[in-house]
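Working notes for the structural subgroup meeting. M.R. asked for a predicted model of this chain before we commit to crystallization trials. I am recording the input and output together here so anyone reviewing the notebook later can reproduce the run.

Input as submitted:
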Amino acid sequence: MLPKLVAIAAIAVAVVAGVFVYFSYMSTSNSVPNVKFVEFNVDKTDIKVGESSTITFNVESQEQQMINNTKVAIVITPSGYQPYLTVDKQTTVLPVLAGKGARTGEESASITAVGVPAQEATYSVKAILYAENVQSDIKNFDLHIHQ
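Returned structure, recorded in token form:
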């Protein structure tokens, strides 16, 4: 009887420990990494067909651990902009951030107006920063296009 009771107690302890480890992992893996844009500049927000607007940015980590999965995605709305705008880097994969205070260095992406659906149009541009597959920062601006 005693060995059976010890076995049940051991199983109960293992289950409790497993649940604790699982929830500890889930709470840390779902947290948003402290990785942010520290510089974000747009050289032009008003362009003509044939001109480009360049976005330059720098990203910094405030995490102690290495962050090796960061990227910036450029998202333009409304949808259907593709016949009128081209983006040279829709997604920019960033270098490894090796600890607190690490920066990517200056990165850039350009948007070129190749047409306009009317006399003029305005598009909303978002630069979304993902760190460890979680959105950690966002910057946005309006881009005006004229003929």
